[in-house]
Design brief:
258 residues, alpha/beta, Rossmann fold, 12 strands, globular, binds adenosine-5'-diphosphate, binds magnesium ion
Length: 258
Amino acid sequence: MSGLEIRDLRANVDDKEILQGVNLTIELGSVHALMGPNGSGKSTLAYTLMGHPNYKVTGGEVIFDGVNVLELSPDERSHLGLFLAFQYPVAIPGVTVANFLRTALNSHQKAIDPESKGISIPDFRKLLKEKMDLLQMDHSFAGRYLNDGFSGGEKKRAEILQMATLEPKISIMDETDSGLDIDALRNVAEGVQALRGPNFGALVITHYQRILNYINPDFVHILFEGRIVESGGPEMAHKLEERGYDWIREKHGAKLAA
Ligand code: ADP
Ligand code: MG
């Protein structure tokens, strides 16, 4: 199996168990949507997978490429091909989008080959132009300071550009759609669609079904109280759009409380 395998993952925040045994396999070539009510643990899962220090793993395992990801630092996870697009990207005034991306790319190349001198500036410019064209972005975007004064939509597009440049094998997108107008949403979705292929797997985390109209996911899972309680195809997202999350609470809330 090539992909990310999450087995019975348990994690605490502030000594409170938030992830209560998550099981999920994201095979390369497949796009999974993860939905669920606010507070169900979606962001906790994303941060735990990337190794954020506030999220303490108390059980289970995460295997990628035959490697136990939980033993790696966030850097090493990234070098292995995992990518996290944040719900709230941070601004880095003074560092341009281009510089940031080149540093990230060079760091990846050095991790693979310590002798690597990194990508040359002309090669990098060419690559960046290609990626910006793919995402239909204005080239002036590369010269702006990362996320500094960016609109919500621009921040999300910067995340997608980072993803397109680093070419991760598995990408985890935490509510990349939140707060976006319909045009920005479509851009983000097109960015994901452009990367879709046999060597790319994604976990698209969202509270709303809207983005899934543009990214038709192969699978849809519902996280509730730290566990995946329902899994299905794209029809699951439509069911949520029609019925909201109440039926999930009714069906699974009592069972978990008992
Ligand atoms: P979701 O992304 O599904 O809305 P979260 O993973 O953000 O859910 O939150 C799940 C639970 O964990 C909530 O009860 C939230 O209050 C708690 N939690 C998450 N992150 C933190 C944190 N950094 N500090 C304290 N509590 C947190
Ligand atoms: Mg969240």
